[in-house]
Each structure stands twice: as C-alpha cells, then as structure tokens.
C-alpha cells in the first residue's frame, strides 16, 4: 500500500501562476494538483486528476474547505468519493481530518453535513420563491420569455392537428418535445 501525501488547492483571483510553488514550499508532497479560480464545479480538471490519481492509503491535504469547494453539497460528495477510495482528507485551516479507516466516526459527520446541504438547498428555494412572489406583486416579474410567438403557436397547433410528427414539429420550431406538448395542452 502506498502512502502518498497529495496537495490540492485553488488559486485565488489575486494569486498568479508563480504562487503555486509558494503554497507547497513549506511541506513536501508527492503530487500537487491545482485549479484556477474561474473553474467551477462542473469544470475542475485539477480535482478530477487528483481523484483519479489517489489510491488506497493516500492523504490529500487541502488548506481549507473553501479552497476545495464553496458548497456543502459538493464538499460531501468529494469527501465521500475520497473516503470510498480509502483516502484520508485533511483540512489544515479547520484542523479537520476525515480518515478512511474511521468510518464509524466519519459517517455520522458526513451525514450531518449532508443534512446541512439539504437545508441550504431548501432555504435557497424558499428565498427564491419569496423573491418571485414579491416581484410578481410589484409587477416586475414576467417569467421566462415565450419561445414561440402567437402566430407560431397557431401554426404549431394546426400542423399537430393534421397528424404531423411531434418530433418533426419540435425540430421545425426549435423547441423540445416537452415544450411542444405544453403548447398543445394549453389549447
């Protein structure tokens, strides 16, 4: 079993490419992975390379939870992925270590973090709904712009009434089949 220490960090907007060496100079690591600040959750090549690189027994060192991710949900997902690979995850600023060999302790902690992430999602949805309701009362909320004009909707309904293929109609009007069916139901 190999025991590599691996560093992961994200450069901040103020840091330059040359500062990557400064971040790792005080400690010795077998590998270092880094992402740019512009990289978002869907595009984190450094993080994905890190996860592919890690093996059982490795330790991943991260300065802080916020340098790993900005969402609790992503934090839980990444932590679980690493623990499933039997990798230890160490957060220096928070003085927190998720050890793969202490699952009976780690599982409840991750479960609580997942509940907090679920709470955050629900709170965000509630705030959004309140904001939309408030905007509607002020008359400022109009919703999404309609994909088709009234004339196009009439043409769509006429062509659908003649038995034309729904797939062809969706392609011709450049809408999804779901949107097509929504227009057809609204008549």
Automatic annotation (TrEMBL):
It comes from the Bacteria. InterPro entries: Homeodomain-like_sf (IPR009057), Resolv_N (IPR006119), Resolvase-like_N_sf (IPR036162), Resolvase_HTH_dom (IPR006120). CDD domains: HTH_Hin_like (cd00569). Residues 1-139 form the Resolvase/invertase-type recombinase catalytic domain. One of its GO terms (molecular function) is DNA binding. It holds the Pfam family HTH_7. Belongs to the site-specific recombinase resolvase family. This is Helix-turn-helix domain-containing protein. It comes from Pseudomonas proteolytica.
